[in-house]
């Protein structure tokens, strides 16, 4: 028994005992430190959440529209609508509703403007419009376009943009088409035609809230060499798109959605559909 007492006293005076004791003290200090950090961190997190909630409530109160006014999201949307107030000189000569060139079927949301060429060198806008009109009697084919731009820059509208034209094959349902006259087999537009097409494309882009890059060639839909000059010369097409973009930048102004729709909706009345057959795949 005396030996056990001596051994116990000897152990508590040993270096091993002191090491273990120091380890226990360090461990307790670490545990206390971790507990303090958790409490302090948790408090900070709760405080941060409270601050964020207060800031969010204050922000909502500050941006809350007056009664009858649109929300902040709609205000942002309204500011993105562009209008080119100088409307192109468009001669509206709507085709007689018929199943061969003006079927009277509504378009869906317009996503692209499609540029074509007539492939009839030297013909005028009026002649091409008359050809579309005559199809109601000849039944020769099914083809048309919303607009035809002539050799002197004249623009004839054949079909309201709320109706489908027989122009862009499988994309008739969500595109507006422009046929362009040209003098020779190259399909190159003269300056008058070119400038009117740029102006019309820019105006239509703003009408449908599109960008210049949303103007495409018939070639981009079907692979057909149309408009020929721009298919044969891709760099010239890039220049054309840049010219459309520059025209929008120079002439467009921001408007509310209501003002935008009111301005662009003029003269775009629809007709009662006279033909319900699918129009996808039909075009020149």
Describe the structure.
- By secondary structure, the protein is an alpha/beta fold.
- The protein has two domains: 2-57; 79-264, Peptidoglycan recognition protein-like (Lysozyme-like, 3-Layer(aba) Sandwich), CATH 3.40.80.10.
- Helix content is 48%, strand content 11%.
- It contains nine helices and eight strands.
- It has helices at 2-12, 15-63, 72-79, 125-138, 191-207, 218-222, 228-232, 234-251, 257-264; strands at 81-84, 90-92, 112-117, 147-149, 155-157, 175-180, 215-217, 252-255.
- α5 packs across α8.
- Mean pLDDT is 84; it is low at 62-78 and 270-276.
Could you give a short description of this structure?
The protein is of the alpha/beta class and 284 residues long. It has nine helices and eight strands.
Radius of gyration equals: 36 Å
Instruction: Kindly estimate the percentage of residues that lie in beta strands according to DSSP.
Output: 5-15%
Largest sheet: 6 strands, mixed
CATH architectural name of the largest domain = 3-Layer(aba) Sandwich
Largest beta sheet: strand ordering: 2-5-4-6-3-7
**N-to-C terminal Cα separation, in Å?**
116 Å
Q: Number of folding domains?
A: 2
Based on DSSP secondary structure assignment, what is the total number of beta strands? 8
CATH topology of the largest domain: Lysozyme-like
Global shape: elongated
């Amino acid at each position: 028994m005396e030996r056990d007492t001596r051994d116990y006293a000897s152990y508590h005076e040993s270096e091993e005992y002191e090491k273990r004791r120091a380890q226990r003290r360090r461990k307790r200090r670490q545990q206390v430190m971790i507990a303090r950090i958790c409490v302090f961190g948790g408090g900070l997190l709760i405080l941060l959440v409270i601050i964020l909630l207060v800031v969010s409530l204050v922000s909502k109160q500050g941006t809350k529209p007056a009664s009858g006014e649109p929300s902040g999201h709609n205000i942002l949307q309204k500011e993105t609508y562009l209008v080119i107030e100088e409307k192109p000189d468009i001669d509206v000569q709507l085709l007689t509703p018929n199943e061969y060139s003006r079927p009277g079927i509504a378009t869906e949301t317009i996503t692209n403007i499609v540029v074509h060429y007539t492939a009839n060198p030297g013909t005028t806008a009026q002649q091409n419009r008359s050809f579309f009109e005559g199809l109601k009697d000849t039944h020769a084919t099914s083809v048309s376009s919303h607009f035809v731009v002539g050799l002197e820059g004249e623009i004839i509208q054949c079909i309201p943009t709320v109706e489908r034209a027989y122009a862009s094959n499988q994309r008739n349902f969500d595109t507006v088409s422009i046929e362009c006259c040209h003098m020779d087999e190259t399909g190159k537009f003269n300056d008058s035609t070119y400038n009117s097409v740029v102006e019309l494309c820019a105006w239509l882009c703003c009408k449908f809230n599109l960008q210049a890059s949303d103007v495409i060639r018939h070639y981009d839909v079907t692979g057909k060499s149309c408009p020929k000059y721009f298919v044969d010369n891709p760099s010239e097409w890039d220049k054309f798109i840049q010219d459309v973009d520059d025209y929008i930048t120079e002439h467009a102004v921001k408007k509310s959605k209501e003002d935008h729709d009111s301005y662009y909706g003029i003269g775009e009345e629809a007709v009662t559909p006279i033909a319900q057959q699918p129009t996808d795949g039909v075009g020149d």
